[in-house]
C-alpha cells in the first residue's frame, strides 16, 4: 500500500503537470531504433493476468450448472488477441482464513455483522468455478499461511492437485501479504527473516509430503511498497536464502498506488493524481531493485496482485474510463521494466481490512467487470476499464517474441509512447494521452498530433482507438475499443479500424491508440 509521503509526492507531480492537459500540440518523437536495444525481456502473452479474491471466486466463475457467461465471454476476448487465457490467481486476504473440507459445500462464509469475512470453508464443488476460465489459463494456487497451521496449506494444495491438476497449476503461493500479518496472526516482532524461515520450513515439509515438483512456489506476495523502511521485500528474502533449497519459481509483490484505507490517503486518490504518466512511472520504479534481484538468480518477478486504489477502489475514480488509461500505462510500463505478469485484482470490499476505510461491503469499485447483479452496481456487466485489457493484449500480440520500450517525450509529460517489436522488427506503437478531457470538456481538449511518418512504410499502417466521452465516463456502453463496446462481454457496434493519414495520428486527451505499422 502507498505510503502517505510517496502519495503526497505523486499528488504534487500530478498538479504540476495538470495545466499541460489543456494544450493541443504537434509531437515529433525522438529517433526510435530499428532494433530493440533498450527494450524489455520477451513479453509473456499472459502479461495481463487476473487475481480474484478467494472468497468471491464462485461469483466470478459460477459452477457447472450455472457458469458465469459474462466472465467466460470477456476472457475469451483476451484469448482471441494473444492465443492464450490470462493466468488466474484465486487469492487475497480471505485465503489466510480459509479451510478445505472434503464434505463441505462449494463455499461457506463466516461473516461479521458488518460483512467482514473471518473464515472461508470450501469443498470440492468450489473447483467447478474454474471450468469457466479458458482452457489455456494457468493457476497460481494461494493457500493459507495466516492461520499458521501447515495442515490447512497441505489440504488446500492436495485439493488443487486433485481437482485442477498439474497441467494447469503454474505455481503455489503461501499466504497473502505476510508483511501485514502483525499484529493479528503474528507478533509485532514478525520480520523478514521470520517469513523466510517459515517459507523454507513449510516448503520443505510440503514438498516432501506431497511429492511436489522442484521450484514450484511463488515467494513473497508482500503488500508494503519497497522503500528502505519496508519490513519485507524480494531483496531481503533473497539475501536471507529463501531460494537456498530450490523451491522458488517466481517472486511476487503487490502494488496499489493509492488507497481508501484511511482518510489521509483517500483524500489524494483522485482522477488527476491517478491519471498521470509521471506518477505511474515514478511509483513502479520503486520495484526496479526487486525485479533485478529476482532476475539475478534466474527467477521471474511478477506483480501478483494490483490495482490503482487499495481497500477496494473509489467511487467516481476507479469505476470510470480513467481506470482504463491508468491500467494501460501501468501494465505497459511494468512490461518495459521486465515484470513478467501483472495480476489485476477482482473482488469485493473486505471491511476487516481497515478500521477507518472509506468503503462498505460490496463488489470493488476497481473490478474489471461486475460478475453478478448487485444493489451497488445494478446489472452484471463489464466496467469502463475492461477495454484497457484489449489494448494491452493486442499490444503484446500472439507471436511470443514481442519486446516493448518506453519512448521518452519530455516536452509532453502526459504522453506515454510505447514501441513494440516482434522478432526485432518495429511492429506496433501504443500511444496514451493522459491529459484531462472530462465528459463536460471540449472534445478536442488536450489533443496531440503525433508524427509517425518516419516509421511508416507504404500506406498499410492502421489504428485502433480506445476512447470514451471523457475521463470520468462511467457508462460502459459508451467506452469503446476500435469502435466497439463490450458491456455484455461481446463486441457491440461496427468495428472501426482507421488508416493512418499522412503518417500522423491524432490522439485526444484521455484517449489511447494502438498503431499497427
UniProtKB/TrEMBL annotation:
Keywords assigned by UniProt, alphabetized: Hydrolase, Signal
Keyword check for Hydrolase? yes
Is Protease one of the keywords? no
What the entry lists under Pfam families is as follows:
Glyco_hydro_79C (PF16862)
According to the record, the signal peptide region is 1-21
Q: Where is the Beta-glucuronidase C-terminal domain?
A: 418-514
Q: Name one GO molecular function term.
A: hydrolase activity
- InterPro entries listed in its UniProt record: GH, GH79_Enzymes, GlcAase_C
Name of the molecule in the record: Glycoside hydrolase family 79 protein
What organism does the record attribute this protein to?
Jaapia argillacea MUCL 33604
Amino acid at each position: 500500500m502507498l505510503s502517505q509521503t510517496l502519495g503526497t509526492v505523486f499528488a504534487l507531480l500530478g498538479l504540476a503537470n495538470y495545466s499541460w492537459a489543456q494544450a493541443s500540440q504537434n509531437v515529433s518523437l525522438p529517433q526510435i531504433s530499428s532494433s530493440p536495444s533498450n527494450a524489455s525481456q520477451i513479453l509473456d502473452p499472459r502479461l495481463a493476468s487476473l487475481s480474484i479474491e478467494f472468497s468471491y471466486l464462485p461469483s466470478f466463475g459460477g459452477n457447472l450448472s450455472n457458469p458465469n457467461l459474462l466472465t467466460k465471454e470477456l476472457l475469451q476476448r483476451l484469448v482471441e488477441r494473444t492465443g492464450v487465457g490470462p493466468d488466474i490467481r484465486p487469492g487475497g486476504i480471505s485465503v489466510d482464513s480459509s479451510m478445505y473440507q472434503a464434505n463441505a459445500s462449494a463455499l461457506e462464509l463466516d461473516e461479521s455483522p458488518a460483512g467482514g469475512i473471518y473464515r472461508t470453508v470450501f469443498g470440492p464443488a468450489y473447483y467447478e468455478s474454474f471450468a469457466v476460465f479458458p482452457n489455456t489459463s494457468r493457476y497460481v494456487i494461494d493457500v493459507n499461511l495466516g492461520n499458521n497451521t501447515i495442515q490447512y496449506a497441505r489440504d488446500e494444495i492436495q485439493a488443487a492437485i486433485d481437482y485442477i491438476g498439474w497441467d494447469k497449476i503454474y505455481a503455489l503461493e503461501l499466504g497473502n501479504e505476510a508483511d501485514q500479518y502483525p499484529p493479528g496472526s503474528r507478533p509485532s516482532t514478525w520480520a523478514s527473516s521470520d517469513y523466510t524461515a517459515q517459507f523454507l520450513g513449510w516448503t520443505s515439509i510440503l514438498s516432501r509430503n506431497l511429492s511436489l515438483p522442484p521450484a514450484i512456489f511463488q515467494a513473497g506476495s508482500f503488500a508494503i511498497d519497497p522503500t528502505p523502511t519496508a519490513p519485507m521485500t524480494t531483496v531481503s528474502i533473497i539475501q536471507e536464502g529463501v531460494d537456498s533449497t530450490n523451491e522458488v519459481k517466481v517472486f511476487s509483490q503487490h502494488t496499489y498506488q493509492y488507497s481508501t484505507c484511511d482518510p489521509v490517503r483517500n483524500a489524494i486518490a483522485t482522477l488527476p493524481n491517478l491519471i498521470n504518466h509521471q506518477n505511474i512511472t515514478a511509483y513502479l520504479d520503486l520495484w526496479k531493485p526487486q525485479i533485478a534481484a529476482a532476475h539475478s538468480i534466474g527467477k521471474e518477478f511478477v506483480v501478483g496482485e494490483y490495482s490503482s486504489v487499495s481497500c477496494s477502489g473509489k467511487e467516481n475514480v476507479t469505476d470510470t474510463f480513467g481506470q482504463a488509461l491508468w491500467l494501460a500505462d501501468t501494465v505497459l510500463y511494468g512490461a518495459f521494466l521486465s515484470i513478467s505478469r501483472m495480476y489485476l485484482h477482482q473482488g469485493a470490499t473486505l471491511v476487516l481490512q481497515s478500521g477507518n476505510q472509506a468503503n462498505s461491503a460490496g463488489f470493488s469499485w476497481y473490478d474489471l467487470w461486475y460478475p453478478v447483479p448487485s444493489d451497488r452496481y445494478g446489472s452484471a456487466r463489464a466496467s469502463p476499464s475492461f477495454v484497457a485489457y484489449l489494448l494491452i493484449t493486442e499490444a503484446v500480440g500472439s507471436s511470443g517474441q514481442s519486446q516493448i520500450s518506453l519512448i521518452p517525450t519530455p516536452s509532453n509529460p502526459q504522453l506515454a509512447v510505447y514501441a513494440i517489436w516482434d522478432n526485432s522488427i518495429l511492429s506496433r506503437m501504443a500511444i496514451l494521452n493522459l491529459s484531462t478531457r472530462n465528459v463536460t470538456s471540449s472534445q478536442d481538449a488536450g489533443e496531440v498530433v503525433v508524427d509517425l511518418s518516419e516509421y511508416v512504410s507504404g500506406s498499410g499502417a492502421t489504428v485502433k482507438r480506445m476512447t470514451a466521452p471523457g475521463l470520468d465516463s462511467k457508462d460502459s456502453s459508451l467506452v469503446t475499443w476500435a469502435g466497439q463496446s463490450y458491456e455484455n462481454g461481446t463486441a457491440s457496434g461496427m468495428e472501426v479500424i482507421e488508416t493512418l493519414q499522412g503518417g500522423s495520428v491524432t490522439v485526444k486527451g484521455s484517449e489511447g491508440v494502438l498503431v499497427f505499422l
